[in-house]
Amino acid sequence: MIKTAIITRSSRGLGAQIATTLLEKNYNVVVNYKQNKDKAERLIANYDENKTIAIQAYVTNRSEVDQMIQQATEHFGQIDIVINNALVNFKFGPTQQKAFKDLTWEDYEQQLNGTLKGAFNVTQSVISQFFAQQSDCIISIGTNLYQNPVVPYHEYTTAKAGLIGFTRNIAAELGQFGITANVVSGGLLKTTDASAVTTPEVFELIAQTTPLKKVTTPQDVANMVVYLATDEARGVTGQNITVDGGLTMN
Fold this sequence. Notes:
The chain has helices at residues 13-24, 37-44, 62-76, 105-133, 154-174, 200-209, 218-228, and strands at 4-7, 28-33, 52-56, 81-84, 137-143, 180-186, 240-243.
């Protein structure tokens, strides 16, 4: 049976790379977008319309998420894989990052909502059909900054750390229903829209201090996400898997 994956905020960047990699592996794919309808439609234009669909929904809005899950389920019959990829209004610009003394709780709240509330909404909206299917998976995108805050992106990293706790609790409760849940934490990716403002000096520092002497690419992370979506990874759950060329080691 061909499985269906839904990827939040996947019209561009890492989400788009995950989407195209899954499509090339013969998965059905739901490309979720907030505003970039043109990018989403261009992304899926080269694929069979029976294999992929683009659906607008803002992940922090539960009613929009419920409508997206309903539309995707009606289109493909069921959803088997959720990939929580949404990143809300954040850029990896080390010279632009606020110092802790200048941050507001609203800065934190924006990232907590985009990361945790988004993952909560999508996961809870789809969970009833996951219970029935008994063989599904939830994959969330984290960050190696949780372990190695080479640049202190306070609010972003804190939200991603919370995502690990969310995932491990989901894994502990839902494993009895055949549902796995994991986090894939990439290093700084070269290059996505969010890292386009990262200075060359930061990329060079990371490359020189990484065992593989290279910066992580979106494809590197996409490959791990796709592996966790396969039946071969059914024995893996509750894990935070880091893909950063060995910069951080568990």
